[in-house]
Amino acid sequence: MRRPIIAGNWKMNKTVEDALDVAIGLKRKFYTFGEADIVICPPFTALSKVGDEISDSSIMLGAQDVYWEEEGAFTGEVSPKMLKDVRARYVIIGHSERRVLFGETDEAVNKKVKVVLRYGMIPIMCIGERLEERDNGTTYEVLEKQLTRGLKDIPKEDVGRIIIAYEPVWAIGTGRTATPREAQEAHKFIRDFIEKHFEKEASVKLRIQYGGSVKPDNIAKLMAEEDIDGALVGGASLDVNTFVQIVENSIL
Ligand code: 13P
After folding, report:
1. CA angle at 134 for the pair 131 and 138, rounded to the nearest 5°
2. Which of the listed residues 214, 217, 239 should we mutate to test ligand 1's pocket, taking the one with most ligand atoms within 8 A of CB?
3. What is the pLDDT of residues 174-189, one digit of tens each?
4. How much distance in Å is there from the Cα of 130 to the middle of ligand 1?
């Protein structure tokens, strides 16, 4: 049985003070919590303080991106060493907003996944098709390409540690969720890909999150699907009560 993992991606939202308010609210509720992994991913500016605040609780810290070099002349970037320093355990990589708005390639995603593993953190590698790709029937080609390139040269024994987030771009921030069946089909495709290209053991261990307009009222049906192991939540993770309800409904 794979342990559920619910992560909140706060994107470019919240000052340090607002971020701390949410962290404190969540900590009150999930100071100890054994039934799922809970991860919050604040913006870089709030990582350190939020990390301190939740360090004695069951909630874990994640970052929203990383660069692949350890240090040096890379203006504006944040290194894996710096994320480790603020006790980040997870790093979101290749979010569709980074791919679409900032031109992030699968090759960059691959370098980031490798460096995050090397630093002992857990990559949450995002993949997903755009609306026109779903409409013209190329969803699985797109997913296959993103998986092949994003996971290139990752050793078999490391693949099971990675988290894949399936986030269909047309479902992000649109209020249009993939149906549980559509999501399950994509998740099954991802698990089968891992079995075919790596090994059965890794595919059984691999946790696959769904992301895209996840809300308290749709999470339970998504989680009931065999290959959906958690959620990467955007907008609905910004409010304490809503995120608490998502976590609670995910383990029903
Ligand atoms: P929403 O939950 O706001 O649709 O965002 C999903 C997402 O992009 C999480 O990474």
Report:
1. 130
2. 214
3. 888 899 999 999 999 9
4. 14
Long-range Cβ contacts of 133-139 (<8 Å, 24+ apart) = 134/168, 134/170, 139/186
Sign of CA dihedral 52, 55, 56, 57: positive
Given 104, 133, 167, 248, the catalytic residue: 167
The residue from 95, 97, 104, 133 that is catalytic is 95
Which of 249, 252, 237, 242 shows the shortest CA–CA distance to 39? 237
Ligand 1 neighbours, Cβ below 6 Å, are 9, 95, 167, 172-173, 211-214, 232-236
Question: Would residue 95 show up in a list of annotated catalytic residues for this protein?
Answer: yes
CATH of the domain at 13: 3.20.20.70
Q: Report pLDDT digits (tens) over 3-28.
A: 999 999 999 999 999 999 999 999 99
Q: Please state, in angstroms and rounded to a whole number, the distance separating the CA atoms of residues 206 and 228.
A: 10
SS (H, E, C) 126-140: EECCCHHHHHCCCHH
User: Is pTM beyond 0.90 here?
Assistant: yes
The tally of domains found in the chain comes to 1
Domain that holds residue 130: 5-250
